């Protein structure tokens, strides 16, 4: 389980993702997403985004973060390459913003590492990706946007140290275990026990 897939994260890219996560959690905490506070002519009413602190409102963002972490756990393939592209873009945009705001450039922060998916975890991620692709048109626009933001945040905050490493190891290890358990049930089940 000590095999890691790597890609560098800069302090600027990390700050960008942390800022996006903080802004989304602040909106969730305060409730609503209209930005106008219900005043006429100032955007949608605060109630349009839902009540404050509704845990269900965090599901798309959280699911996106988990999927972003799983992208880093892919050793190669489309999801692994896409994760690398997102890291490259996040570091670039974060560097531009940090340089503009502070005059400082982002420096190498950490390796964007997670345990690799094994063969069983890859089955779960493949099935999940296919399911998401097939239902993409039925998902409303707001949860889809929150999910995409979560994917970016998950890719950028998935580093090899501290709490982020514990979360990544739990997510990728959990998916590997789920895949292994599913295949164990399929291999050992007989028709009589399924009826």
Describe the structure.
The two termini are 37 Å apart. The radius of gyration is 19 Å and the shape is globular. The protein is built from seven helices and four strands; from the N terminus they run ββαααββαααα. Helix 1 (11-30) packs antiparallel against helix 5 (141-157). With 195 residues, the protein is mainly α. The longest helix is centred in the last third of the chain and has 27 residues, at 162-188.
What structural class do the secondary elements suggest? mainly alpha
Total DSSP helices: 7
Mean pLDDT, all residues: 82
Compute the number of strand runs. 4
Major sheet: order of its strands? Answer: 1-4
- Molecular shape: globular
Q: How much is the radius of gyration in Å?
A: 19 Å
For the termini, the CA-CA separation is 37 Å
Which series of helices and strands comes N to C?
EEHHHEEHHHH
């Amino acid at each position: 389980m000590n095999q890691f897939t790597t890609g560098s994260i800069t302090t600027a890219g990390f700050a960008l993702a942390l800022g996006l996560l903080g802004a989304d959690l602040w909106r969730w905490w305060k409730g609503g997403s209209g930005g106008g506070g219900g005043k006429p002519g100032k955007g949608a009413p605060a109630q349009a985004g839902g009540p404050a602190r509704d845990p269900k409102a965090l599901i798309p963002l959280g699911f996106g973060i988990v999927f972003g972490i799983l992208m880093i756990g892919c050793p190669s393939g489309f999801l692994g390459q896409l994760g690398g592209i997102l890291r490259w873009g996040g570091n670039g945009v974060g560097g531009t913003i940090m340089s503009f705001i502070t005059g400082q450039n982002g420096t190498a922060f950490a390796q964007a590492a997670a345990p690799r998916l094994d063969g069983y975890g890859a089955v779960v991620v493949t099935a999940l990706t296919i399911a998401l692709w097939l239902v993409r048109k039925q998902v409303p626009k707001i949860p889809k946007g929150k999910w995409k933001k979560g994917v970016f945040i998950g890719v950028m905050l998935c580093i090899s140290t501290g709490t982020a490493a514990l979360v990544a190891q739990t997510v990728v290890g959990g998916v590997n275990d789920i895949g292994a358990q599913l295949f164990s049930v399929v291999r050992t089940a007989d028709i009589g026990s399924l009826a």
